[in-house]
Each structure stands twice: as C-alpha cells, then as structure tokens.
Design a protein that fits this description.
About 25% of the residues lie in helices and about 35% in strands. With about 375 residues, it is of the alpha+beta class. It binds adenosine-5'-diphosphate (ADP). The site of adenosine-5'-diphosphate has 12 residues, from strand 2 and helix 2.
C-alpha cells in the first residue's frame, strides 16, 4: 500500500492497532532490516497471533508496538492515535516476556501489585485488583509464595497477571510458552485462551509454533523476512495458504511447479518433470496461457488412493507412517516425485512397496500467484 493511499483510509473504531508501512532497520556493522514494510490491523478483543520462523521480525514488531523499539519508518496507531514517539510507559500496552522477567526477591502478590504501586494506586484497591487476578489465573492460595516456590506454569501466570492488572488495552505476549515443557505449554494454551475470553482484552501473541497459533488465535499474521505474507483466520490460512512460503512453513509438502501446456474451457494442463496435471481454471487467479509457469499445492488430505479423479497416477508406497487416527503415506510417482497422502486409518495399512493409484480432483489444489 502506498503512502497516499493509506492516508485516505479512515481509522476504524474497531481496530485497536493500525500499522502502516512499518519498518525497522537496526544499526549494526551491516544494517539489519528486521521489519521491512508491514501493514497490519488488529481488532478490538481478538486473539491475534504473529507467527513466523526465528529471525522473521516478530519480536521487533511487538517491541515497536509496545514502544521498546522506535520505528525507522511508517506509522503505528493505538486506539486511533499515532504512538511512534510515545514512550513505552505512556502507551496502553503491556508486554509479557518468555523469560517472565519477574522480580525473584518478591512474592507473587508483590510482583502482581508492582505496576499498580508505581502508578500510585491506593493499598486497598491494589489488593483488590491483585486478588481478582489471582482468581482469574487460578492462583488463589499462592499469593504469598516467593517466585522460586512456583512452577514454570505458575510463574507464567503471575507474569501474565502482572501485565494484565494495569488494565492495558492490548496485552502483548512474546513466545511466552517457549520455556515450558510440551504438556504444560499445551495446558497454558487453553488457559491463555480462557483468560483472554474472560477479560475480553486484545491479545497479540508472538510464536514460531504453528500449533500454538492455530489452536488459540482468532486471526494469524504469518511473517517472513520482515514482511507479512498472509493474514487470516486459522482455517482460512490452512485451506488457502496465500504463498508458497506459507504452505512450506505450515509443512504442506505437496508443492508442484510446472508449465501450462494447454488451456481448455474448464481445465489447464500443467507439465512438471514429465508428468501432466489437470488444474481447474477456477483455481487459477489469472487468465492462463500456454507457457505460463504455475505453482500449486495439493493438500495431503485431498489426495486419495483411487482412480476416480481427473488426476490419477500410478505410484509406489515409499513410506508408511502410522499417526493413530490417520496414516501418512509417502508415495513415489513414476518420475520419482514424492507426494504425501493422509488417509484415515482403517483396518489395515498399505505396506511399503505396494503399488497404488493416487488421485486428486482438478479443483482440489491451491494455486499460488
Ligand atoms: P523473531 O522475533 O522473528 O525471531 P527478531 O525481531 O528478533 O525476529 O529479529 C529480526 C532480525 O533482526 C534478525 O535478523 C535479528 O538478528 C535482527 N535483530 C534483532 N534485534 C536486533 C538488534 N538489537 N540489533 C541488531 N539486529 C537485531
């Protein structure tokens, strides 16, 4: 979006955060473009996740929202006001870190009340607001424990309480489940979502974990190399990944690139490594012509072991991976191309070396533009 265009976009009341052309270059021996050019809207009351690989600029983006880092260019609005030059402590945001950053020599209560004390909130009100937090976090009875006497999950909840008690408009959470073991992290996913729904606040959550993002978020922004690749609800992104990067990051393996060799009324033929695929024209986001390059994804649950589909290939089972309710097969086509197929587990499994026909509908694919 260019600068002129964005100035004509009215600030929506529904958006609590509006980010336009945001950029951050760190001064180093070699300047690092951590955030290249980001446009993003976060709606009031939503659980919004910034998902991406390590180094893609997620933390930098979060730190600019909360005011720890200053943008090199662009604009951040919170509640309609440009906050680029507003100090961190004057913004209505609060950040929870992965490493908790709790005061180790204080009790849980002292930690939670700390921000209120700084703001001069009277004793009785401080106590009452902290009590509300301990209740919300299921930590009643643990108020007077020292931080060292709490488990990882409890510390995480104290850290969240300490940030929430000051009643920010937006709570920012940076990889907060990263330090917990897998089981605890899963429990905390459920807890965090419950807390967010109960307090009805906007949460902006940063993670590199697809599972965390998918299970908690109302919407997700996927970042790559300082830019946002796609924004959408989890199911939207899963069903229709916008770019090859997104599909690859979400571990969708069946990505094929080829050349259009014929265009019919309904389908286009695509040649790739000697194989011909038939792709529905309705799935191609431009008017296809012979010679165009085309990259598409075949979601593994839309591949079937039958010959009822427009695309049908002889193949050999190269690997059978039993996953419980479903089984993942790696099958090799005659050109050695491997496809991954997910099939609901039945009475028996296909053994490695079995010859099978694998097929998919011409409109089962996602074409990348
Ligand atoms: P993520 O949170 O997605 O892992 P970061 O925002 O931490 O990504 O980092 C984005 C890029 O900016 C990386 O290349 C990182 O090395 C670089 N970076 C982060 N912080 C600094 C800094 N203070 N100085 C220089 N480079 C930095």
């Amino acid at each position: 979006m260019n600068v002129e265009a964005q100035q004509t976009v009215p600030s929506s009341e529904q958006n609590v955060i509006e980010i336009r052309n945001l950029r951050k270059v760190y001064d180093a021996a070699e300047p690092v473009v951590a955030v290249d050019s980001v446009d993003l809207d976060v709606r009031e009351g939503e659980f919004f996740t910034i998902l991406g690989p390590s180094g893609s600029g997620k933390s930098t983006l979060l730190q600019m929202i909360t005011g720890i880092e200053t943008p090199t260019g662009g604009e951040i609005r919170i509640d309609g006001d440009v906050v680029n030059d507003v100090k961190s402590y004057n913004r209505n945001t609060s950040l929870v870190f992965q490493e908790y950053a709790l005061f180790p020599h204080m009790t849980a209560r002292e930690n939670v009340e700390y921000g209120l004390m700084l703001r001069g909130v009277p004793d009785a009100e401080r106590r009452e607001r902290a009590d509300g937090m301990f209740e919300l976090m299921n930590l009643v009875g643990k108020e007077d424990r020292n931080i060292q006497e709490l488990s990882g999950g409890e510390r995480q909840r104290v850290a969240t309480a300490r940030s929430l008690v000051i009643e920010p408009d937006v709570l920012l959470l940076d990889e907060v489940l990263g330090a917990l073991d897998e089981k605890l992290a899963k429990e905390m996913q459920v807890e965090l979502k419950r807390i967010q729904e109960e307090v009805e606040k906007t949460f902006v959550f940063v993670t590199h974990s697809q599972e965390e993002a998918f299970s908690m978020s109302d919407r997700i922004a996927i970042m790559n190399d300082g830019n946002v690749e796609q924004v959408g609800a989890p199911l939207e992104i899963y069903n229709d990944p916008a770019t090859e990067f997104v599909a690859d990051f979400l571990q969708m393996p069946n990505i094929v690139t080829g050349e259009i060799t014929a265009v019919g009324d309904r389908v286009a033929s695509v040649q790739s490594d000697g194989m011909e695929y038939r792709i529905a024209r309705t799935k191609i986001p431009w008017t296809p012509t012979v010679g165009d390059e085309l990259t598409f994804l075949i979601p593994n649950e839309r591949l079937f072991f039958d010959n009822d589909h427009e695309n049908s290939f002889e193949s050999t089972v190269a690997d059978t991976i039993f996953k419980g309710s479903y089984t993942e097969y790696a099958v090799q086509l005659l050109n050695d191309r491997e496809l991954r197929v997910h099939e609901t587990t039945g009475e028996s499994l296909l053994s490695e070396g079995s010859e099978v026909t694998v097929g998919f509908a011409s409109d089962a694919v996602v074409v990348f533009s």
